[in-house]
Amino acid sequence: MAPNGGTCFFILIVTSAALAQPPDLTAGDKMGFQDIAKKLMMKCQSKGFPLPQMTLLKSVFNSSDLIAADRTAEQSSTLLPTFLQVLTSITPGKNNDPNNQLNLMNTVDKITNKMLNCSHLSFMIQKIKNSSESSSCFLRAFVAPLSWTALITQEDNNLDPDSYDALLWAAKPVLVDVPSETMKLPTKVEGQNMKNMMNMLQEVYKTMTDIQRTQVLKWAKEQIMENYFNCTLRPLPDPQSVLMYHCKPSLQWLDLESLSIMGPYISQLMPEDVDSCPKQKLCEFFLSAQLRSSVGEAAEMGPSLSKKFLQRIQECFSENEFQHHVDKLGRLACYYDAPDLTPDLSQRLLSQLNDCNHTLNPMLKKRLVNCMMSNSSDAKALLSLGNSVTLLSPEQLSALPATNLSNVLQSLGLNLRWTTGQLLSIVRNQLGDKKCDEVSGKDLLALQSVAAGLPSCALKNDKVEEILTDTEALKNMSQQMRKGQLKAMLQGLLGKMNPSELVQKLPGPLLRSISLNNLNKANITSLDQVQNKTWSRPQAAYLAKKMFNLKQLHFQKLNSVLQGVTCEMIDNVSDSSVMEMAQAITKTPQWLSKVQARCATQKLLLTLEKMRPDYLKTITEQELDAIPTTLLLYLPPWNVKNLPDSVCRAFLDKMQMANLSSLPLHAPSRPAITQRALLCLTNGKNLSELTIADVSRLGQLLCEVKPSQIQLMAPDVIKFSLQTMAFCSHIPQLHRPDLIQMVNQTFGNPSDWPEKTMESLGPLLLLDDNTASFLPNKPWMKDVLVFLKSRLHLTSDILQKKLFDLTTAASNAARRKRESKSIIAAFTLNDHEYLLFQIKKYHDLYHVSESSVYLLQLAIEVAPLAM
Ligand SMILES: *[C@@H]1O[C@H](CO)[C@@H](O)[C@H](O)[C@H]1NC(C)=O
Ligand SMILES: *[C@@H]1O[C@H](CO)[C@@H](O)[C@H](O)[C@H]1NC(C)=O
Ligand SMILES: *[C@@H]1O[C@H](CO)[C@@H](O)[C@H](O)[C@H]1NC(C)=O
Ligand SMILES: *[C@@H]1O[C@H](CO)[C@@H](O)[C@H](O)[C@H]1NC(C)=O
Ligand SMILES: *[C@@H]1O[C@H](CO)[C@@H](O)[C@H](O)[C@H]1NC(C)=O
Ligand SMILES: *[C@@H]1O[C@H](CO)[C@@H](O)[C@H](O)[C@H]1NC(C)=O
Ligand SMILES: *[C@@H]1O[C@H](CO)[C@@H](O)[C@H](O)[C@H]1NC(C)=O
Ligand SMILES: *[C@@H]1O[C@H](CO)[C@@H](O)[C@H](O)[C@H]1NC(C)=O
Ligand SMILES: *[C@@H]1O[C@H](CO)[C@@H](O)[C@H](O)[C@H]1NC(C)=O
Ligand SMILES: *[C@@H]1O[C@H](CO)[C@@H](O)[C@H](O)[C@H]1NC(C)=O
Ligand SMILES: *[C@@H]1O[C@H](CO)[C@@H](O)[C@H](O)[C@H]1NC(C)=O
């Protein structure tokens, strides 16, 4: 990168250094650069990176260098103190250490408004890139938001590609950790810079939400139109300034270049956009397998766009010709209604279906597998099935030569999910007529991937001891075994080893099967013996009590033992250790129960108020930061309500990241927190003045905002909010009818929606059983519902019923029969009762007892193993 290669300026607003006055929340809709830097620095800290030494800082912020670049030395003298100030804010306590260099922060100016010269940044970035020290993470955290600001505020595009690339490199962490910043993409980027920007955006695709991805696509489309087609999609600016026209809707803008710079963002195209792709170009893009790779990197693409692509690609070929390219379909294959294919083509198509959600077209896979296996003399077929080997029926599995099946088990290992019927077939196939006591340790090892199908008696015998020496195999086996099998195995082992040894040696699932009685005999006297193992809840309760009595209940080291901690134990923590306890238990949220979180919050609150009455009413930002977010969620409503305005920024930051699933659905603090956050956002303004960036700061709290309040927002914010809420995992019951009505008002009557709209907003309609059951019976509705079901893990009865009804309503009886089977095949064990209901319904519909028997067999076959 040439330091003098280009110039750009942007205004660096350094807000009050000591944060003495309340943060300016009129500007608080966006996260300031310091907030972002702080967030990124906290990430460096959580990775355990050391703080940078002064020598590194001096070299990066070397004022001589900076002066060499530009004679306004003043700038560099502000940057270092600002850096130190942000760094200090994440290391509370350390700034009192007289030996700590961070004391320099005392020299910080109060407020600086500065034009920052990009060459300064370029210098710093170059130095940081050059540094191999892990502590440079903190420096990168600091220059990231500066670089991003430089990228989005500079208008004149005269940065050379190298400098631009350096800024992109430096800015990337912002987009990774604050993906909402993609809502602020630069107004205009041209040429190579545009390609580089898209490369960077492609790299951060995975961290974004669908709405952010759509935003990026919209932006890219605008840039493409303006850069390559001399027309614009935006409202025409000053008509005299540029000779630019509105793009014609028929413009064939989606050419090869556009397709390739968009990469995975093509998943956000509207189906109509695909019509803007010249046929030859699309065929080329497909044949070069670029389409497969773009789609492969994308998140699941909706059925409307997938089917559109598929349809246009098929137009490139005759049907017969097309079949020879099925291996370039990638995930589009999920929507390909394949005709009968040769075994070879079947295999090629099957390999594309691996990434498809099995719910989409389970019968197709089965058909392909049967086709491949039809030529039983074909030795390679079995291995080439890959994971689809699980689609072989128990009969097919039984019929395989034992060595061949054994080869498959060895090569595919543990990642296969078999049904009970298949497991039994495989084990019978492999063990033949062997009696339980004839099964050797070697046999057991060979069958570890199908351990769940082994008879319990075989696990009890003497050979089991042999496996103990192979701890990894034992772990692999035990992870799949059923309760009864684990018990049997443990029984066998208990005869040969004492409980103390077992606790030391056994892997997780077996360990969790040890009875409390035996645990008691295991001579556990210190937390170290048990801290790194995963215990069951009753075991954890036993161990926590024991540690409590031994005065060894060190919260930092509990891990899964935390499950057994009672409220009394939490109440017993000394005042001086309460904050430490609070921080420790929230570090392992998977072991923290809601009850414990509530008790810990109460205890914390009590302690804090002992320290200072009305602690929360007068809390400072730093004090709020110290309280773990999980516990903040449990504050009593009146405490939340009384939080001072001065902590709004910190409060919103915490709430944006909060995971509401750790809070009971009906917790009174849910509405209280939501309202407090809204009040923080508006800060005296009207709800109608909130921007999209504002409501984005609510994080999951947006799901809890009252419809009557959303209604008061600006139209684009309402749209954005509703689209976002379609991804909520929970929306309060009482809000649902009004929300659905608002969706109806904002996006038109759902019965007129096109497929694509249904894909993005459908989840809101499914919130209400009544609305859901009246969804129009469009031909594409089933695909959309299957898509939403798999994507949002929806399991409502009404959705299942609707799916079934849509399927059985199809006119063609043969198709209906085939699809009913596929729908039923898609049900999991959780849907067991519903499955039976369907089978009965199917039976009633067709009055064919034979098919019921078949379906029942199918049901047993598809139901995953009950563990
Ligand atoms: C700062 O830059 C000057 C001039 O480039 C150089 O002589 C000096 O060694 C640098 N100081 C540090 C601490 O890197
Ligand atoms: C920024 O730095 C460049 C390169 O050193 C210099 O040419 C330019 O005058 C500087 N601009 C400002 C406003 O300081
Ligand atoms: C970066 O490192 C290379 C090789 O170590 C060195 O030649 C170069 O001068 C360094 N650049 C800066 C800006 O420190
Ligand atoms: C766009 O305009 C520029 C300058 O007016 C011209 O050179 C270029 O050929 C135009 N491109 C297209 C695709 O019309
Ligand atoms: C079956 O296998 C034989 C021998 O490998 C081969 O010649 C034949 O073409 C295969 N049949 C089909 C339908 O693939
Ligand atoms: C089955 O095993 C035999 C002998 O090990 C081998 O010759 C044959 O090719 C294998 N067949 C399959 C389908 O793997
Ligand atoms: C146990 O499972 C792991 C992960 O699936 C695998 O890598 C490993 O080889 C297995 N161990 C044995 C002994 O087969
Ligand atoms: C229990 O542990 C203690 C200390 O480690 C040891 O002295 C004692 O022998 C152990 N008792 C049994 C039954 O293992
Ligand atoms: C438990 O795991 C932690 C982190 O991996 C490690 O530091 C500690 O030494 C382990 N303790 C025991 C007793 O193995
Ligand atoms: C949407 O609004 C129209 C007109 O007000 C109404 O007829 C229709 O039932 C509404 N649909 C839903 C799903 O609420
Ligand atoms: C498929 O859908 C199920 C739920 O219907 C979901 O749990 C699973 O994660 C999905 N799999 C993939 C690969 O998307």
Would you spell out the secondary-structure blueprint of this structure?
Layout: E1 9-14, H1 33-46, H2 54-60, H3 63-69, H4 73-90, E2 112-117, H5 118-130, H6 136-153, H7 161-177, H8 191-203, H9 210-229, E3 231-232, E4 245-246, H10 256-262, H11 279-287, H12 290-297, H13 303-314, H14 319-323, H15 343-352, H16 362-373, H17 381-384, H18 394-399, H19 402-412, H20 420-431, H21 441-446, H22 456-460, H23 464-468, H24 471-480, H25 483-494, H26 499-505, H27 508-511, H28 516-520, H29 537-549, H30 567-571, H31 578-585, H32 594-611, H33 621-626, H34 629-632, H35 637-641, H36 648-657, H37 669-682, H38 692-696, H39 707-710, H40 715-725, H41 736-747, H42 755-765, H43 769-773, H44 781-792, H45 797-809, H46 813-825, H47 832-846, H48 849-862
Parallel strand pairs: 3-4
Antiparallel strand pairs: 1-2
Helix pairs in contact: 1-4, 1-6, 5-6, 5-7, 6-7, 7-8, 8-9, 15-16, 31-32, 40-41, 42-44, 44-45, 45-46, 47-48
Bound molecules: 2-acetamido-2-deoxy-beta-D-glucopyranose (NAG) (11 copies).
One 2-acetamido-2-deoxy-beta-D-glucopyranose (NAG) is lined by residues 229-230.
Describe the structure.
- With 867 residues, this protein is mainly α.
- 55% of the residues lie in helices and 2% in strands.
- The chain has 48 helices and 4 strands.
- A two-stranded antiparallel sheet has the order 1-2. A two-stranded parallel ribbon has the order 3-4.
- Mean pLDDT is 82; it is low at 1-6, 13-30, 67-76, 94-115, 827-833, 845-855 and 860-867.
- One 2-acetamido-2-deoxy-beta-D-glucopyranose (NAG) binds at residues 528, 531-532.
- The site of one 2-acetamido-2-deoxy-beta-D-glucopyranose (NAG) has 5 residues, from helix 41.
